[in-house]
Amino acid sequence: MATTKIPAEFLADNTIVALSIAENIISTRELAANGITSAQIASNAILTRHIDDNQITGDQIADNSVGTPQLAGIARGKIIVGDASGNPALLSLGSNGYVLKSDGSDITWAEDATVAALTTEQVQDIAGAMFSSNTETGIAATYQDGDGTIDLVIGANVIVSGMIAQNSILTRHIDDNQVTTDQIAANTIATANIADNAIDGTKIASNSILTRHIDDDQVTGAQLADALTVVTSVTTPLVDAAIVDGENFKVNGGQGSDGQVLTSTGSGVAWEAAAGTTINNNANNRLITGSGTANTLEGESGLIFDGTNLLLGATSYNAGAFGSATGMNIKKPRPQLLLEDTDNNKDAYFGLTTAGVFLATQDALDIQFHTSDAERMRITSAGKVHIGNTFSADGSYDNLVVGTGAGNEGMTIYGAANGASSIAFADPNDNDVGNIMYDHSSNYLATIVNATERTRITNGGAFKTKQGTSAYANSTSNYNEICSNADATANLLVRQGSTYYADCINLWYYASTGPNNVHSNFIHAFDQQATRAKLLSNGGFANYQSNDSNLCDEREKKNIVASESTWNDVKSWNIKKFHYNEDENSDAKRYGVIAQDIEKTNPELITDWEKNKASAQELWQEEDKPLPDGVSVGDEKTPAQAQVMRKAVKEQQMYIMTIKALQEALTEIDSLKARITALEE
Predict the structure, then answer these.
(1) How confident is the model at residue 438 (pLDDT cuts 50, 70, 90)?
(2) Of 146, 240, 385, 526, which sees the most CB atoms within 10 A?
């Protein structure tokens, strides 16, 4: 069969698919008018070379797409080409009929050197040589001298699908304009099927080219319609405006006046004077708010920001106790800051009233204080205060909890140097008030019960307690003291110091009666039946039924031997009569011994008593020297000798020694009595 073309009438609908169409076969003439829509155009496929001159108008350009970089330097009669450095340059128009020619390094205007086209007759002769009289039934060739074409006519229903081999219909078998949309399956024509430069303006539906179809920097001045350069030629003007000579922005042929702005008229745009805005009550640093009226604002006299401080109701920032500090100053009657949590419907307030400064919540919320991203104090919704942590040991008494439990903890009450610091305890009526108080002037700690001091710890560490309202017996002395009644007649003093023996109990008596009043007691021990023992103010000791006893059990002793004779010891003891220093001078003297006398013969019976301050006379006399000039009786000798150790006698030992001497005397008496009896006989 001779090569021929198959008319469209012999092709069934949807017969031609993508595999049947060779690459680069579909040209402009095969595409129906408006047949290519935006769905068939790939993103960024439309390049500058695909867009004819003057085809992009204002309707196709997105708002704010044309800027200075796209318009700079464009003028009528000019085109932009790249120079040798790659920078844009303006190229003037060439002569009539000239075309742009590239020499490999530059683009210039030159004459059209295209080979002259073949004549119609020459084409017919060539075609006639290719075709002869067709003897096959149903096929004939017709020459069209008017347009220089040859038509192949195939009889109706001559060729059916069963006569055509698979993949046998090639491009050359299909006559021009014979493949219509009925023969092309949906979504069959791909990018590879469309020849370069085949899609012109007639094949693109109106409003089909969108922003995504145009690659970056592809719309140049050549593609912009005259609507962007000459207003009078605008078909669809860009808001009645145009870019002219690459420099001036004009509306309806004008550039407007100095200070005018471009405004919309509802049907176009025009140059108009800028509408003014009125600011009522305007003053320096006032914040501007809306007024509810167009072109009118309000300068708020009570809302000022000077660049550093925000003032509400104030005219200047009051730093107060913070000196040069800056911040926000609210100056209003009962000012407050309201915090509302709309998610949880909770409110909190910070404000100032005549009652004081308050931080409050209307809901069951704790108030927390944080530093260094850690909680330091909390006031619970129940009114309890926790400093350092949220631990609760006892819900009945832990209204104030201090400490973190991580180390040493404490609380300081900072008072004046001559004042006092106190923790008070009170009832609702303040009838029974108690407190723990520290006096900073005398440096003592006291407990006060019902407005009366009951105990005290002195600066020296002494503990004192009392009943009644009278002062302590000696409030300045650093010894423990118990005042048992209102007139301070009896005290228990426990002291360890240089003046007294270590670890001892000293019972002092303060009364108007003298120490020899046997009815005054240091210690009075009694039960419900009777008095059992007394330590009298004069040093005497009395006990019920004379029950004095000494621990003499053999099991408590060792190295037991018979005593030697104590006869000579007892004989050497000088029994004296005397007054104690506090006794009145009278004939009634006391019997006793002098420790210094006993020490000469029996030093083992002497013990130290206590150190007492001695007079100069006493000291000098002990050294057996006369008083020097300038020294009087009662003067202290030297600080080192201001006190002397008093001496005491172990009288119970003397008592036992006396019994031993008495035993010796009785033995001697018995011997003498026997001798006398013998002589008498």
Answers:
(1) very high
(2) 240
